[in-house]
Write a structure and sequence with these properties.
- By secondary structure, the protein is of the alpha/beta class.
- Helix content is 31%, strand content 27%.
- Strands 10-9-8-11-12-13-14 form a 7-stranded mixed beta sheet, with helices on both faces. A 5-stranded parallel beta sheet has the order 1-4-5-6-7, with helices on both faces. A two-stranded antiparallel sheet has the order 2-3.
- The chain is globular and about 60 Å long.
Length: 314
């Protein structure tokens, strides 16, 4: 065990997941006051001594993304100015990850900007989960522990009674993820050839692979407006699939997402609690939530103790 004390603090973006993390760790949540002034500015005060402590701050950069990001940066600065020995930013959902490259002239690479901001604010290390693009790890000049929800999802679907399962990637970019699922589930592999003309608008072009009379698992990292999932599920059913399930780590679920899922032929959409569900999402009978609290807690424990976390990356 390292000499300095473990302290775990949580922002306001995902209080339920934070509570599960500290419960799994068997520690008391760090004492912190976070409030908003009447003009919208955020105020943070650490209400206990953290001098020389190993501090972990849990905050998802989910809706409202800008406010939650700013809250995280202010927390980092407060920890640094309170003489914490080490500060680890635990970011279950890394917002802005989809802006990871220039896809047209005169646009920012905001995922890199967020990485710079976190380091500048005082983060010494980052723990995150299912980045939209794995190479975002290279945007940081500090260590990044990139965890995956795949083991949790795979265990969940392994217990389901599926017949002749085919794992399908909703686009070419997700083939590596789908292949990993297919290998561990002893399933076939398929791809949806998709054309996206603009953000949040997708069109199914064709399905590569045999899905006729087979159960299908669509695998993606993020479900945002659910256009890709609903259109993909419809195309798969038209191609003869028996049932279509979906696995998505981050349930952004913006705009008409819930209505699209409920109206689609999807049998079930399994998501994790990296982002808290809205009341509407929690009422949906098609959405199942799997917790990643124990996985994040184990990563925190191993990093604090100086143990290997490589076994958590598979």
């Amino acid at each position: 065990m390292r000499e300095y004390e473990l302290k775990v603090f949580g922002g306001r973006s995902n209080t339920a997941l934070f509570a599960e993390i500290v419960k799994a760790l068997g520690v008391q949540p760090g004492m912190i006051e976070i409030e908003d002034f009447s003009d919208g500015e955020t105020f943070v005060r650490i209400e206990e001594n953290i001098r020389g402590a190993d501090v972990f701050a849990v905050q998802s950069i989910c809706h409202p993304g800008n406010a939650n990001l700013m809250e995280m940066l202010i927390m980092m600065d407060a920890f640094r100015r309170s003489s914490a020995e080490r500060i680890t930013a635990v970011i279950p959902y890394y917002g802005y990850a989809r802006q990871d490259r220039k896809v047209q002239p005169r646009v920012p690479i905001t995922a890199k900007l967020v990485a710079n901001l976190l380091a500048a604010a005082g983060a010494d290390r980052v723990i995150t989960m299912d980045l939209h693009a794995g190479q975002i790890q290279g945007f940081f000049d500090i260590p990044v522990d990139h965890l995956y929800a795949a083991p949790i999802m795979i265990d969940y679907f392994r217990l389901k009674e599926v017949e002749d399962l085919v794992v399908v990637s909703p686009d070419a970019g997700g083939v590596e993820r789908a292949r990993a699922y297919a290998k561990r589930l002893n399933a076939g592999l398929g791809i949806i050839d998709k054309r996206r003309d603009r953000a949040n608008v997708a069109e199914v072009v064709r399905i590569i692979g045999d899905v006729k009379d087979r159960d299908v698992l669509l695998v993606d990292d993020i479900v945002d407006t659910a256009g890709t999932l609903s259109q993909g599920a419809q195309a798969l059913m038209e191609a003869g699939a028996r049932r279509v399930f979906a696995s998505c780590t981050h349930a952004v679920l913006s705009g008409p997402a819930i209505q699209r899922i409920d109206a689609s032929p999807l049998a079930e959409v399994a998501v994790t609690d990296t982002i808290p569900l809205s009341e509407e999402g929690a009422r949906s009978e098609k959405i199942s939530v799997l917790s990643v609290g124990h996985l994040l807690a184990e990563a925190i424990r191993r990093i604090h103790e100086g143990a290997s976390v490589s076994s958590l990356f598979v």
